[in-house]
Structures are given as C-alpha cells and as structure tokens.
Amino acid sequence: MEKSYACWLQYDRINDRNLCEDYRKFCQEVAVKGESVILHSALKELKNGLRSMLDIEPIIYKDEAMEASIIMGTYEQLHLQEYGLDSQLFQKINEEGYLIKTIKKKEKETLLLIGKSDKGVLYAVHHLLRLLQLRESLNQLEFIESPKNQIRMLNQWDNIDASVERGYSGQSIFYDHNKITQNHKRIRDYARLLSSVGINAISINNVNVWKVETKLITHEFLADVAKIADIFRAYGIKTFLSINFASPIEIGGLSTADPLDNEVKKWWKNKAGEIFGYIPDFGGFVVKADSEHRPGPFSYGRDHADGANVLAQALKPFGGIVIWRCFVYNCLQDWRDRSTDRARAAYDHFKPLDGQFLDNVILQVKNGPMDFQVREPVSPLFGALEKTNQMMEFQVAQEYTGQQKDLCFLVPLWKEVLEFDTYAHGQGSAIKKIVDGSLYNAKFSGICAVSNIGDDANWTGHTLAQANLYGYGRLIWNPELTSEELAEEWIRVTFGHDSFLIEQIKQMLLDSWSIYENYTAPLGVGWMVNPHHHYGPSIDGYEYSVWGTYHFADRDGIGVDRTLETGTGYAGQYFSPNKEMYNALESCPDELLLFFHHVPYTHRLKSGKTVIQHIYDTHFKGVAQVEGLIEKWSQLQGKIDEERFTNVSNRLQLQLKNAKEWRDQVNTYFYRKSGIADEENRAIY
Ligand code: GCU
User: Fold this and answer.
1) Where in this chain does the record put each Alpha glucuronidase N-terminal domain (predicted)?
2) Is the distance from CB of 300 to CB of 258 less than 8 angstroms?
3) 258, 371, 511, 617: which one is catalytic?
4) How many CA atoms lie within 13 A of 46 on its CB side?
5) 20 φ, ψ to 5°?
6) Is 292 a catalytic residue?
7) Residue nearest ligand 1's atom 11 by CA
8) Cα–Cα distance between 486 and 468 in angstroms, integer?
9) Does the reported pTM lie above 0.80?
10) Residue whose CA lies nearest to ligand 1 atom number 12
11) Cα separation of 118 and 98, whole Å?
C-alpha cells in the first residue's frame, strides 16, 4: 500500500533489533475474551499492526488464556482480581475508556488491554499500536484513558452525484452516479483511520440535502445506507444522515412540512421506525433548516424548537438524536443596511429558545459567528445556552484556509477556540467545558467537523492536510494535548523518526496558520475571497452582495462597527468581561480589531504600527514566510518518498503563487484607498 494512502497507519517494519525483540516478547500470544464485531475489528487491527511492524503472527486464544502475553477484553468479562485489579478502577472512566497496563504474571510480562466496553478495547489496541509506531517502551505501562468529549463526529459534505461540497481532494468515496457505492474497501479504510484517532460518529451526506439525497431515508436507499452503517459500526462509529426538512412534502406526498401538523408528526414517526428497521443503532439526523435557502419551520410561522422537536419526538423511542445546526442568518442583506449583522444571527435566533428543545436535540454551532474564517472570535452562543445541549462545529476541510493547496495546520486554531474562556459561569468557563458537557451537565455534547477527505490517492489532496484530520480526532479525544505534541506525533507516525525532519515539518505546521493569516484578510476582517469558490483574493468580492459579509473599507478607514454604542451591538452578546474587552477600542485584541471596530487607516495598533502599515507588513512577510516553507521542505529531499515529497513541493509552489496574488491585490487596494505610502517603499502595484 502506498504510504500516502495508508496515512498514519503505515505500520512500517521496526528495524531496530533490540527494540523489536523487546516488543515481540509481549506480542506472541493474544487472548481475547468476548465476541462482538468491534472486538473482531480490534483483533484484526492488532494482528495487522503486529504483522506489519514486527513480522509476527501471534497465536490467538479465544478466551482468557493465562499463557497469553496480551490479554484483551472488557472489564466485566475478565477476571480482574487475577491481575491485581479492582473493578472500582473502571468506575472512573467512561463507556469508551480503557486501561493499558503491563503486569508480571507468573514471572512473565503481560500486557492488559481492558476496555470499559468493547469500544474501549478497540481504542486500547489503537493506543498500543501507536506506542509501537512511536517506538515507546512497553515496560511498566499504565494508561487509564477516557475520551473527554462524548460525540466526536465528522460531517461529510458529500453529494450523491459524487461531488463534495467544499471538497478539495477528489470525489466522494461514498457515492457514485446517484447511487451509494458498492465499493466498500475505501469506506472501510476510512473507518479504520477514523477509529484510530477516536472518531465515533459520522454523517454521510451533505448538510444541503438536494433532490435525490432527500430519498436516502427511503427504501430505495436504506439497504445501502445500512451496509455503510455496518462498516462504521464495526469500528465503533455511529452513522447519521442529513435530512431535508421538507421531506414530508418531497417524499411523503403531504401538502405541508409544518412541524405542528399531526400528519407531519405521524409521518416522521413512521419514517424513524422505517430507518431503525434497517439500522437498529442509527445515530439520527443532522439538519440545516431555514439556512441559505434550505426549507425549515419558518415557512409555517414556527420556530427552530418546533422544527427540531418534531424530529426529536420521532427519533426518541429508538434512541436517535437530532443535530440541529445554528448556521441561520439573513442571506439576502443589503450592504447599505448597517444594522443587520450576520454575526449576531445565531445568538439572536437561538438564545431566546434556550430550554425549549427536547433532550435528544443538540444544537450544532460553528466555532465563529460568521463562517470558518481564518480569524474570527468564538461564537457567543457557547455558554449562552444553559438548558440546551450544544456541540461545536469545526471545519477540517480548508474552505477559507487555503483549500488544501495552501498549508494551514488548524489544530492551533481549534485549541484557541476550546481554551477561550466565555465567563458564562465566571472565570474558568472555557469552551472546552461547554462542549464536553461538564459546565451545564448536558445530556449530549461533543464536537463535529466538516471532513477534508475525498477519493484522491492520499485522501486529503495536500499530504500535510492529513495532519488536520489526525489532529482533529486526537485533539477532541483529549483537548489537553498541545499543538506541538499533536504535530510531532503525526509526523512520527507519518514520516518516521529523523529528528531533522521532525523539527522542519513541525515548524512548518505550527507556523502555517499565522502565515496564511498574514497574506490574506487582516485583523479579523475576513471575507476578501473570490465569491463562490472562496480561493484567492477578491477584496470587494463579497462587499456589495447579499451575504452580509462586509469589510466597509472606504478612503477613510476599514472594519465593522459591532460595538454597543455606535455599532450593531454584537459585542454585547458576550459575557463580561469579554463584552467590554471587545467593545472598547483600547482593549480589543489587535487580531480581531476590524471584526469589532471601524477605524481609520492611521489607527495605531497595540503593536505600535498603524493599521495600514500592518496590512503592508504582514502581506510582505506572509509571502517571505511561504518562501521559507519552500526552503524548509526542500531540505527534506531524500528523507521522504518521492510521491509525497513531490506532492507537497507542488502544493507549496501553488501556495507561493496564491500568497503573491493576495499580497499584491491587498496592498494595492489599500494603498489606492488610503493614499498612504508604505514606510519601506516596497513594490506596490
Ligand atoms: C458555508 C459554505 C457552504 C455550506 C454552508 C453551511 O457557507 O460555503 O458551502 O453549505 O457554509 O455550513 O451550511
């Protein structure tokens, strides 16, 4: 298998003989207690990894054979006392958690992989294999691990014609010519990749549910959906579908989709029964309603709680949930209208409904109030909903962050979001505590993200974009992991252990977000992209359109006034002291200045520079930094296989071209608008 296809599951042969011997002594005989499809996958993964890295075929015992050197199973099935363990230990970890421990049994070193459930065993196996990949010692191991977040999900934005909305790595792996694919290999390999980093849920079709996709919840497609759910189930991943709110009309033959209509309620109940007949552990629905022209409850004078609850009621008897998106805003705005503010919309729509949703509804909120820009503040809805389940939506797909042509390692961005203190319940109310359910004791919570994969040979187009998928899974399992740790871990399991190589790539990854920010939209203003496809610069591309995404640059200044006194009042949606911090020009952080304030070009930033000089400097710097990335990568020639080396080299050249275009367009535009020259007299066209 090509390294690029295997991503972080290459399991290269371990050549160090001593290390290999050390590992082998643990891995000759494996005892598995219990039977389930997930345990079956766990064993398959283990055997595959050991064969590949250590060249051994362990003897497998289908019971708790004492002679085995690896013993795996769930805590309820194993005789814990034989290993000196107390079942109390497992009270501390959640359903998906596990223990990995090295013990001495009759003078023999033995490795225990004990899950709270069979999923825990699968995760323990992945953890063990990762330790081998990382060349860690297996002596005296003791890990007690639980995922911090409950739902750890990916949203595929795949259409049934095999196109992928905002997809930058080929076609869908799920669909083919308006059918669900029967080629399951790739889906199984995807499931393996995802489970190895702890993902436990997936929605398999685009949130925009078009005509044919609306029928995914009918007999015509459900048998094939069920086959996909079987594949994911074996890897501990629950399958969800995005649905069309107008389904009762479009496929049900009703004249309305009014959520309070009894026929509509009945229709959804029957539909849920039908789906669960095919997929007994179906996850539920993801819903984009009343958003960007998709149908929703507003058509019937109902609100989002009415809309979500009719679905939730239908799914409830079967244990299904509704994931209802909060990406709801007026997308028919007039640029002259300075009072309507897209950033306010999610909060304005959903905050008043807090407490009105059934307990199997989760509101899915994008990390920022606009739309996955390179820099946005955190959505003020986090923390504002006390009585409603909520989850985070990130975008692993690099829609506004370089489209997997430009390098942009997103883990530092996600970490910044998760660490942000909302002060919802005083200091220490970080976003990570809201999405892990602990702040408000939520029944359901978690994190999801738009996936970045397609049928490209290397899954993600840009080989280094694999780091985003890997980092996303590992980070949401444990948000305490640092960006540095995650970058290094990914590099080791992907490219090996050469220390020069590790340092070079690590630096490239860690610098990349700020580099991308430098040569694109400055100081949090966002949106200066080409309309529709969103790659490359177009400063006024969205400035006079209906989407509510303006920078309001004129000859005097730039930025959006979102203050309480003279602006849209958006800053007031935050809890104190964030509210005051953003509202006041003096305390607003530089990187978000233009998100909250309209200022003259001569306004001095905290950095001491004027806004206009900052724009020039960062854009020149951004291009120089991309040249630096190219230089760093070129030093790795010979240390990386040709295919992956060339893939990244080519993408970096595209990035350089893009960065130069951004630099020149942005600098020229603002030079012309402001009439203020660059202090360093560099070339501005
Ligand atoms: C963005 C994106 C769309 C997507 C939408 C959403 O606007 O460009 O392609 O449909 O977000 O999240 O629903």
Assistant:
1) 7-128
2) yes
3) 371
4) 29
5) -60, -45
6) yes
7) 371
8) 10
9) yes
10) 327
11) 9
User: Hey, where are the domains in the chain?
Assistant: 3-145, 151-495, 519-560+598-674
CB-based contact 118:34 (threshold 8 Å): yes
Instruction: Let me know if domain 3-145 sits in CATH 3.20.20.140.
Output: no
Q: Which CATH class is domain 151-495?
A: alpha beta
- Any catalytic annotation for residue 399? yes
As a whole number, mean pLDDT of residues 452-462 equals 98
Nearest CA to ligand 1 atom 10: 208
DSSP 8-state assignment for residue 604: B
The answer to whether 483 and 624 have CB atoms below 8 angstroms apart is: no
Sole residue written with tokens 């307990």 = 359
Strand locations in 442-596, DSSP E? 446-450, 557-558
Cis status, amide bond into 577, omega within 30 of 0 = yes
Amino acid identity at 273: G
Tally the C-alpha atoms within 13 A of residue 311's C-alpha that lie toward its C-beta: 32
Indicate if the pLDDT at residue 66 is higher than 80: no
Please give the single-letter amino acid code of residue 358: L
Percent share of the chain, pLDDT over 90: 97
Window from 58-72, 317-331, 567-581 with minimum mean pLDDT: 58-72
Ligand 1 atom nearest 207 alpha carbon: 13
* Catalytic position from the list 57, 292, 631, 679: 292
In angstroms, the CA 559 to CA 365 distance is 24
- Residue 12's identity, in one-letter code, is D
Distance CA 350, CA 440 (A): 17
Rounded distance between C-alpha atoms, residue 250 and residue 257, angstroms: 9
Mean pLDDT for the chain? 97
Whether residue 65 is predicted with pLDDT greater than 90 in this model: the reply is: no
530 CA from centroid of ligand 1 (Å): 15
The CATH number fitting domain 519-560+598-674, selected from 3.40.50.300, 3.40.50.2000, 3.90.1330.10, 3.20.20.140? 3.90.1330.10
Cα atoms found within 13 Å of the Cα of residue 205, Cβ hemisphere only: 32
* Cα–Cα distance measured from residue 644 to residue 633, given in angstroms and rounded to the nearest whole number: 11
